[in-house]
Amino acid sequence: MNQSCATTRHLTVAFEQCNPIVGDITANVEAILSAARQAVAAGADIVVFSELSLVGYPPEDLLFRTDLRPAVERALVRLCDAR
Question: What percent of the chain has pLDDT over 70?
Fold first, then answer.
C-alpha cells in the first residue's frame, strides 16, 4: 500500500437525548438545534437523535391530525437548513 494514501480519519458521533414535548414541534426543533450546536462545538461530526424527537413520544392521536405531516416536513427543512 502506498503510504501517501494510507490516511486515517476519525469520525466523532454524538448521541443526544432530548426531552421532547408531545405535539410542540417548534420547541422540539429548538431543543434539537441547541443540542446539536453544543455537540458540534464539543467536536461531534454527526449528531444522532432518537425517533420521534420532532413530535414527542407517545404521539397517540396526534398521528391522526392532518396538519402533523406538513408541520414535520417544515421542521425537517428548518433542521436541514440550520448551521
Answer: 93
